[in-house]
Amino acid sequence: MIRRLLKTLLVMSAPGFILFAAPASPAPWNGAIDICLCAAVDDRRIPLVYEAIRFWNAALAEAGAPLQFGAVHQRPLSELEAALTQMSAGKLRSHETLPYPSFMGDMEHDLLIILSDADIVSFTEHWEERSRAVIVIKSDKVHPLSLPNVTRNVIAHEMGHIIGLGHNSDETRLMCGRPAPCRPEDFASSQPRFLPLTEEEKNLLRRLYGNSEEQAELLSSTPSTE
Fold it and tell me: Would you say the pTM of this structure is higher than 0.70?
């Protein structure tokens, strides 16, 4: 279940691509994040979602976190494109939380991941009062997601925001983004791979989700901002 997520969304943009991302003021989840994956039954990106889940569960385990991305419940992609286009356009106009969409009304899961077939703006949204969140990924037939290895890392990047990570300024790292001059093209690779996390991000995961002794040690060693 979600304790609290992020109310304000930052924007990472590039030609043909915009990613709405969580700010660097994270709030943790509890337990397992139950996922509903909505995609066409033959969508070639489905295995990439499972790869991203394994990537993050390994990172969370390394941090000693009692949190994991949990069970995945797949369902076919319904007639959602018109609604998703409207939502993505709404995120372009405002950073305010979007109205809760009717297609999520009967969803019992914590997180809905939608692999869209449309050339829309990829976005993440959360409705704290409903304990629900959504990640929408644009078509991988459109640049730059059509480049090899990019979609894999975009999915993982979005999931990083869901668990509380913000952007960094290192184009060789997974969570690089605005205002740094990072672009999704930086994810491109002839070899399937995830870009790594920074040591600061690993420490943040430990502070957020590690056991109480680890949290106390890390918090006591964090420099004061005053």
Answer: yes
